[in-house]
Write the structure tokens for this entry.
Amino acid sequence: MTLQKVSQIFTKIALKALYTKLSHIVLLVILLTIGNTSVFCQEIIAIDTLKLNNSSLINSKNNTKNDSVKKKKNVLEGIVKMNAKDYEKIDQKKKQLTLYNEASIKYTDFDIKAGIIVYDYEKKQVYAGRIKDTAGNYIQRPVFTQGSNIVEPDSLVYNNTTGKALIWNSRTKQGEMNIKAEISKRENDSVVFMKSARLTTAKDIDDPEYYFYVTKVKFVPKKKVVVGPTNLVIADVPTPLFLPFAYFPMSEKSTSGFIIPTPGQNNRQGYFLQNGGYYFALSDYYDLAVLGDYYTNGSYGLRAESSYAKRYKFNGRFNFRFENNIQSEKGFPDYVKSKQYNIQWSHSQDAKAAANSRFSASVNLGSSQYFRQSVNMNNVGSTLNNNLSSSVSYSKTFQTVPQVNMSLSATHSQNTNTQQIDMTLPTLQASVDRIFPFAPKDGIKKGFIKNINIQYNIRGENRIRTADSLFFKPQMFRDAKTGFQHSIPINTNFKILKYFSVSVGAAYNEVWAFNTIQKYFSSIENKVVTEEQKGFETFRTYNFSAGIGTTIYGTFNFGEDKKIQAIRHVMRPNVSYGYTPSFEKYYDTYDIDATGLTSEEYTKFDGGLFGAPGKNYSNNVGISLSNTFEAKMIDKESKKGESKKVMLLNNLNFATSYDFTADSLAWTPMRVSGGTQFFKDKLNLNFGATLDPYAIDNAGKRINTFNIDNGGSLFRMTSANMTMNYAFSSTDGEKKSNKQNQDNGGTGDDLFGRNTDLSDTRQSLFDKDDENKEDKNIEWYNTKLPWDLRLAYSVTYNNANRQKEISSHSVMASGNIELAPRWKVGFSSGYDFKQKGVTFTQLRFERDLESWRMSFNWVPFGTNTYWGFFIGISSSVLSDIKYDKRQLPDRVFQ
């Protein structure tokens, strides 16, 4: 066995130093054991990259052919990568490698960057620290990274063999928690002990607005932080709040745990505990939170909330809410007990999940009085909602020739005022794509014949109309109506005289009805009786239609030197014709009295899902005209004197029709509608009116006399309406939506107030984007204060019987103003000129304390008066550190 001394190896290094990189030298030093220890020749073969002479390698290889000694394990477990801006120096006496200025060293799973790095390859120890700049200030703080853990200390000593480290002024971030400690001792990959540490969720860890000062800390990355005596310090001032020990979970995965309830007092329900329960982290794809409220008068509430998601597949959430509310005490005359519930479910499928099918759901149903009688603060902004609606649908496309589309859906609409519920369980729709039987193979379709196309559509419904008290009870399903409608439209289009587009079409419809009626005079009851019949019945109808239209352009030029250079007017007139024959064969007669001498006609399909066949044939012409007006103006903001286009009227539409078969009142009232935008599209204006050409008699009934012939004007305006919406701000930002109001059936804005949960740290008047732009050197505003304002105005005029009445007239407003940096005030209010009263009014105040949030919400008057105050840490990790005081709104149970 051949042996070679270490000194001989170092001699060879010296001979090759002229063309060997310093990193190769460092690798050689680390690979070999320093001292007088002999090295087996097998280890010499392992350092072939040092370019030793070939003869020595050959001799070593031959001598080791029959070597019985086991090969030693390599000293290094991976490749060492190192770099420095100024220099890399090796000291063989001290057994140290020094990297200076922007130094970095990476080995296996740890990476160190610092101003200076010293590696003692005998002790297997790394020292990293800062260096001084020309002004004598320390720069280039070390950054120690191992796996996903990052520590930024002033200096550190790390042993890469034992994994232990000693760190001074370490800075690390775990989730939302920032930790800074004077001295840290790293035992291994999973345990770190700290002394004199600061724990905070503030962004600036060196100068936080608050922190928890602890003398001893045991830190387990990604799992937990266990601390000894703890004191809350705010603005570097210790507070009386002191804990002998504390526990902070640091897991990056969701974990189950208790949700601490909020105590309080309500005038009607007494003392309470709200929003307490348990959170179940069931898996990485779904969770469950079970919450409850309890009041000392016996009222209680239960809620179950679950979210689920699978990447590139789907996501959604499900909420179930139930409240058993009691007002007053049993035995008193005002004692009322009410049980209300609400179910919400939303599901969205990722577009990548399936190319030819899609499933979606948006459900909001329950008791009509749930939001009005709920004592939960989350529902305050939804008390004015008059409608709950739901939709669950599945659609699929079959890639056949021709293509077939199919969808299956269930819908729900609930009026919370009348408590009427309309549902379709389910609705089936299918259609076959258009077929052009006479089109040539090259696909070019031109003319009447080649453009003829045929489609097939089918729609089936199971429609239910019921009341809130019968919801999902057997009677609800007994009253359901079921039917199918088949339709085959045949259409074509072509042009005449180059400028006129003509469309011609016919449609065949067949209806299958499973619910019909029968009318007869009952001598027993002495009245006409209408009985519902179950069974299969069918009727068939057809019609013909045609239309011709064109587009006319007109430009009025005023000159290039004028402020308004030109106005462009675009008109789109259209004349349509429709013919439907009479289907008298589907009509029967019934007696209206006991004599049997007088009878009336009816059809058994009256009140059906898809209408009834018409008895009278229709032969009418429709006339419509749409207009747009656009101006060309000088752009004052353009430096080159260019012009710009300004929309004057987005649309101005006129529509009426004439029935050739009518013996009187052949003209239908003309409908006029229009809309436009002003002030860079911030003001939306929409208007409409109904103009009747016929006069009315003293009883208010239309007569077959034109209004102008009766001493009036050409048209008599029977109704009119106008709405305006104006949203603007100091930054001309886009209008933000209140998603929670949308979830509960709201309008998506805060004109009707905002739902408020003071304990929810996610709800804020401040935008997250604005918060990220702010820094510590924030200044007070001088003359310009950030603000936003939304205005809505609505008026309706009714003159059907010459009453000249304003049937509705209201204005609403909502807005926010930032009085000072991190101080914001908001409001929602309005006035009803018809009822002469103020609408729902809400005032909102919020102070952004960086890591803390303080807010106050107040409804000063009305049926839902309340106030609430909250101050607490914004981070969800420490969301239980808060002060919450509120007065819940009083409810009137029905």
User: Anything to note?
Assistant: The first helix runs from residue 6 to 15.
